[in-house]
Amino acid sequence: MAANALFSQLPSIESTRDPSSLSSASSFYPSGQSLQLTGVSPVSFPSIRQRVFCQANFSAISSPSSSVNGKANSGLKDFLHINDFEKATILNILERAKEIKALIKSGERTYLPFKGKTMAMIFAKPSMRTRVSFETGFNLLGGHAVYLGPDDIQMGKREETRDVARVLSGYNDVIMARLFAHQDILDLAKYATVPVINGLTDYNHPCQIMADALTIIEHIGQLEGTKVVYVGDGNNIVHSWLLLASIVPFHFVCACPKGFEPDQETVKKAQQTGVSKIEIIHDPKEAVRGADVVYSDVWASMGQKEEAAYRRQVFQGFQVDEELMKVAGPKAYFMHCLPAERGVEVTDGVIEAPNSIVFPQAENRMHAQNAIMLHVLGV
């Protein structure tokens, strides 16, 4: 069936938009959202690592409001932390990600919402998945992305972050940054006059967790009510799961060695919301019992490689292997944000098993990020 005919059969909906963050707004701005296909009648879609103990507390990690720029007044948004948004908005972004994914998979190439738009991509930390998923996704929807590697800017060293933010805002419609220090992304967003997307910091990785949530919804049917068990270092991935658990109800467990727990303030604040059941324990086998998802990440992130040998000793017993997956149960899926060190934090057999959804998870980075970019740009 031709793509036009296929999508014309889909029902239209009204999608909900979040005006900014939980700290600054408590209502949503509804608007009819259609995908305009060039030369086709408008159609609508169904509702659509480095270890860090963050010095700022949980309540302070929301998108910085600033009189320096007029983003709030213009309706443009940053995407810095998942808990900057309400539950309905996050779920709407995920629904839209499913729609855009279906559109791209169909071969349809006339939906170009980013036509004429440019995105600056700042990489203090290199990454295959982050670069290719953002650049390819933006291109598929009509935009042009500019890669700025570690030697191109040296933000905060060769040039102050506030200057970089304002210069790039003059050239581009959106900025994505993959950085080390979390304060850098906050400063970038404060001074930029265009939306800023957090592609990763040492504190959190919201785009990854949005892709993870999309993958869980696709394979289980929903995120709410599931049990997600992370086994390994209490790093930026764990912080992101905690921030998601503060607005969407599910059972989140982090199983880590003593001394490698996630940031205590982030854990405390997430638990105090009362939205999800959150546990930090030190026994992987106890943690994974009844899990819907078992999740792992490298034990030594970028910037920690000098600790790799030491960490391999400390993390003995925290490898996700076939035995641990048997404890989790036959219905448990395995996820990993990649890159993986096979034979270290996870065995080759677990990654290649039928219940591993690692590679659909990696692909969903692009689809989740497309939806995030559409949201922050108000398209």
Automatic annotation (TrEMBL):
Instruction: Quote the Pfam families the UniProt record gives.
Output: OTCace (PF00185), OTCace_N (PF02729)
Keywords on record: Amino-acid biosynthesis, Arginine biosynthesis, Chloroplast, Plastid, Transferase, Transit peptide
Answer yes or no on keyword Plastid. yes
> What catalytic activity is recorded?
carbamoyl phosphate + L-ornithine = L-citrulline + phosphate + H(+)
Q: Does the keyword Ribosomal protein apply?
A: no
Q: Which residues form the Aspartate/ornithine carbamoyltransferase carbamoyl-P binding domain?
A: 77-218
InterPro entries on file: Asp/Orn_carbamoyltranf_P-bd, Asp/Orn_carbamoylTrfase, Asp/Orn_carbamoylTrfase_sf, Asp_carbamoyltransf_Asp/Orn-bd, Orn/put_carbamltrans, OTCase_ArgI
| E.C. designation(s) | 2.1.3.3
User: Which GO-annotated molecular functions does the record name?
Assistant: amino acid binding; ornithine carbamoyltransferase activity
Q: What class of enzyme is it?
A: transferase
Q: Which GO terms describe its cellular component?
A: chloroplast
Q: What is the top-level taxon of the source organism?
A: Eukaryota
The segment(s) forming the Aspartate/ornithine carbamoyltransferase Asp/Orn-binding domain are 224-375
**What GO biological process terms does the UniProt entry carry, in alphabetical order?**
citrulline biosynthetic process; L-arginine biosynthetic process via ornithine
Family membership: Belongs to the aspartate/ornithine carbamoyltransferase superfamily. OTCase family.
NCBIfam families documented for this protein: orni_carb_tr, PRK00779.1
Q: What is the name of this protein?
A: ornithine carbamoyltransferase
Q: Which gene encodes it?
A: LOC113725286
